[in-house]
Specification:
Length: 624
């Protein structure tokens, strides 16, 4: 039986990634048992197992929902099937419950021997496939979708001059398997336990050696708010042990490793994202891109929150842009993809893109790209946008594209333009251009902040600009009258984005700028600015709730359009809205409009420097 198990382990992913000597020991130490039909094999809802279970012959039924254990099991596995690893790796009683469906032989393999296989690149792919298969079940909904949800504790950060003996002591005391070395603003090196051992024990370096002498640098990092889809893919692609998570300001806010991704359900978009990343040519990318919208409906229908579906879609759009850039520039080998940073703007920059959203984008060139060469790049950027349009992504009709000189400049040019917009926002659409660039998020090239964004860190020092940008933010008023016309039957269509969503986005952007926050997502911006005189906590919470409700309605409507074979749009037709949805829109628009009126009145009698001061009326009822 031991040799039979050893042969099976050698061909059983991800255990087949383990060294031969580990497989030998796993086969020798495993306990094999025979089960009758209906006999309980494992109840990982009662207690997390210490072993991984492998079916040698027969079949085992798995129940993965603790509320439906009395019903028919949701999955059946046969020879070579693994189970129990989820609860083992998470050290939590999270299932499954396994019962022999036929006469079955099952091996219990010590988890201490084989758990490392699940924390490897092969293991990550295995878990992605397993979780994607499980998530087809209607009762399973992913728990996390952005890296922030996976961070459990602040990271350990040391200075470059810290002696490695002190680093080792801190890692031991704080139970951290790695330490980050602060190299500069937004730049960190990493020291892992294995690296410490190699440098100190094997190479014989002194404990007084500074951290910078043994750290790994540079390292791949991700920005706060990044989807777990992209983060896990980066971890796989780079083959690194740890993944730093940086705030938009450049501060380190967390450190993730393979274990953090187990059952984080990044797999809602991983297979699609990987398909796109592996597209061999432009035609294959176009074909795969056109299939993406149809995949969102089942995810939403089985209970995943609309905000997370939208974040997943935004991550997939990022992947499509990156692949389009690579494939199109492969046909222009004289131009380098290292010469520019591609910036997502608008809703995709904020990670709020829906299937009906248009793609806004810009480019920051490296300093040595000459004007004549920039024109050659812009022609290729136009080809990239054409490919994305063929793949089903809407392209901004107002020309917010790097194919235009206004949206493709060197970093120095962006900085000069940003200073002009900040000083004279009324000239050359400065306030509008600034608002676009404040939503910028790098998705290809240098991940550092574009120079223009550092300019807007001084936003509050320009009172006239603060006032003008606020006026512009409030100029897009929630359209109560048009909503009434539609809901009363005097109109047949309503642009939900223009009538309700855009006013919230504009208010949130201004409030975040005024509060000095670098957040991108609308609800995160509202939370960051909550509690100020112009945006009291109660109003911020109200806007957050309204925004989430409207985004859900928008996504539902667009998915129904896709399922009916129509192009998704933000324009709602009255005859396709239920009475409940009509009432929801009416109430939401009324609330948004009331908050806009309050903000305008507050701005009229407060000085600019007072707008973002803490609200001294918190907890007391105030008139809008």
């Amino acid at each position: 039986m031991t040799q039979r198990l050893r042969d099976l382990l050698e061909h059983c992913p991800p255990l087949d990634s383990l060294p031969p000597e580990v497989l030998d020991r796993a086969a020798a130490d495993a306990v094999t048992e025979r089960y009758r039909p209906g006999q309980l094999v494992l109840d990982a809802f009662a207690q997390p197992p210490a072993d991984v279970y492998l079916v040698l012959d027969g079949e085992v039924s798995l129940s993965v929902d603790p509320d439906e254990l009395s019903q028919t099991p949701q999955e059946r596995i046969g020879r070579g099937g693994l189970f129990g690893f989820s609860a083992l790796l998470n050290r939590d009683a999270m299932g499954p419950r396994a019962v022999a469906a036929t006469e079955a032989t099952v091996a219990r393999i010590p988890g201490s021997l084989v758990s490392g296989a699940f924390l490897s690149e092969t293991g990550a792919h295995f878990l992605a496939g397993q979780l994607q298969a499980t998530s087809r079940l209607p009762m399973i909904a992913p728990s996390f979708l952005v890296v922030d949800d996976l961070i459990e504790a602040p990271p350990l950060v040391v200075e470059p001059s810290t002696p490695v003996a002190e680093v080792a002591r801190l890692m031991t005391e704080q139970h951290w398997p790695c330490a980050a070395v602060r190299v500069g603003p937004g730049r960190y090196g990493l020291i892992s336990q294995s690296r410490l051992l190699r440098r100190i024990v094997v190479e014989g370096r002194s404990g007084d050696t500074p951290a910078e002498a043994v750290m790994r640098f540079p390292v791949t990092s991700v920005e706060s708010g990044t989807s777990t889809v992209d983060a896990l893919s980066d971890l796989i692609d780079e083959g690194t042990e740890f993944l730093p998570v940086l705030a938009r300001s450049g501060d380190l806010v967390g450190m993730l490793d393979w274990r953090d991704f187990v059952l984080s359900a990044p797999t809602v978009g991983i297979p699609t994202r990987d398909e796109i990343r592996r597209a061999a040519d432009i035609e294959e990318l176009v074909e795969r891109g056109r299939r993406v919208p149809q995949q969102l409906g089942p995810v939403l229908h089985r209970g995943l929150a609309s905000g997370r579906v939208i974040a997943t879609y935004s991550a997939i759009v990022d992947a499509m842009v990156r692949r389009a850039v690579v494939l199109v520039f492969a046909e222009h080998p004289e131009l380098s993809t290292d010469a520019f940073t591609w910036l997502s703007l608008g809703s995709n920059g904020r990670r709020e893109a829906a299937p009906g959203s248009d793609l806004d984008a810009a480019v920051a060139f490296a300093a040595d790209v000459e004007p004549a060469e920039q024109e050659r790049y812009r022609a290729v950027f136009a080809e990239v946008m054409d490919v994305l349009a063929r793949a089903g992504i809407g392209i901004d009709t107002h020309g917010v594209t790097p194919a235009r000189a206004a949206f493709s400049r060197t970093n120095a040019e962006w900085r000069r333009a940003g200073l002009r917009w900040l000083a004279r926002p009324e000239e050359n659409k400065g306030a509008i251009m600034g608002s676009l660039l404040v939503d910028a998020r790098p998705i290809h090239g240098d991940p550092g902040l574009p120079e223009v964004l550092t300019v807007f860190g001084d936003f509050r020092r320009h009172p006239a600009t603060v006032r003008l940008v606020l006026d512009l933010a409030l100029s897009a008023r929630a359209r109560v009258r048009s909503v009434r016309d539609v809901l009363s039957g005097r109109g047949s269509e309503l642009d939900l984005k223009a009538a309700a969503l855009l006013p919230v986005v504009n208010m949130a952007r201004w409030a975040a700028l005024a509060a000095g926050s670098a957040e991108l997502h609308t609800t995160s911006r509202l939370r960051a600015a909550a509690g100020s005189r112009i945006l009291p906590t109660a109003q911020a919470a109200q806007l957050i709730e309204v925004f989430d409700v409207l985004q859900h309605l928008r996504l539902q409507y667009q998915i129904s359009e896709i399922e009916a074979g129509r192009r998704p749009t933000d324009v709602l037709r009255r005859d396709r809205l239920s009475r409940i949805d009509r009432a929801t829109v009416k109430t939401a628009v009324r609330e948004i409009g009331a908050i806009q009126v309050r903000m305008a009145r507050t701005a009229d009698y407060l000085g600019v420097d007072q707008l973002v001061q803490p609200d001294d009326t918190q907890g007391r009822r105030t008139r809008p």
